[in-house]
Design goal:
mainly beta; 238 residues
Length: 238
């Protein structure tokens, strides 16, 4: 059975803090949550202030799949993209997920997707890219081979008040409508935005993930391929 993705929660903050939460999350046992954040890089010399561990109100465990940081060496000069996957073993009923930061960090844009699978199936990340960063108007990941029935997920974080323009290619399937959220201060250089999409492919072959913006912006982007399987799988870092 193919994986089924649904957008269940998003939130943002422009208030500097060392932690914050996204609320009103409901997920049943044996579903999975895919959690993404675009956040200011408030660490020393522009390093990521985003910490690796997130928690929810029911005690479910989340694994950090990717943390990609864009900086030219100055605090808050770019963006950090973080992505986690968690299996729900204790029901979440209008619960919350909390993020923590090493120093007080201003802007955060967060989205949560729920993944459902068939009986006795798991969500397995088959390949995780190293992450891609830059400054410009076009943002892209390297091509990756995806097996028929598997799902490629893409996320773009921007230091901008509006989210990236979505990928719309139809090679072996169509990308979902972008799920977007912005932490908008009224100024691009102090804002953050996040866009996420997924595509379940109908034939095996190379897939790309390309997003863009009308203005030159700092960006961080990554792709992850997920499979519906109970088998233990090797994660290939590209």
């Amino acid at each position: 059975m193919a994986l089924t993705f649904s957008n269940i929660s998003s939130g943002s903050s422009t208030t500097a803090s060392t932690n914050n939460s996204i609320i009103n999350i409901t997920a049943e046992i044996n579903s999975w949550l895919l959690v993404s954040i675009a956040i200011d890089n408030s660490g020393i010399n522009g390093t990521a202030s985003l910490l690796d561990t997130i928690t929810d109100t029911s005690g479910n465990i989340y694994t950090l799949l990717s943390k990609t940081n864009r900086t030219a060496g100055v605090s808050n000069d770019g963006t950090t993209l973080g992505i986690w996957l968690g299996r729900i073993t204790t029901i979440l009923n209008t619960g919350s997920i909390t993020f923590n930061y090493s120093v007080s960090t201003p802007c955060k844009a967060i989205s949560v997707k729920k993944i459902t699978v068939g009986n006795n199936e798991w969500v397995t990340p088959i390949s995780i890219s190293n992450g891609f960063t830059g400054s410009g108007t076009a943002f892209s990941a390297s091509a990756i081979s995806v097996i028929s029935g598997y799902t490629i997920f893409g996320a773009t974080a921007l230091e901008q008040s509006t989210a990236a323009i979505a990928d719309s290619d139809t090679t072996n399937g169509s990308w979902s409508t972008a799920y977007t959220i912005a932490a908008d201060t009224g100024t691009n250089s102090t804002s953050q935005s996040l866009s996420t999409q997924q595509k379940t492919v109908t034939a095996t072959g190379n897939q790309t993930y390309n997003t863009s913006s009308f203005s030159t912006m700092d960006w961080a982007l990554n792709t992850i391929v997920f499979a519906p399987t109970r088998a233990k799988s090797i994660i290939f870092v590209l």
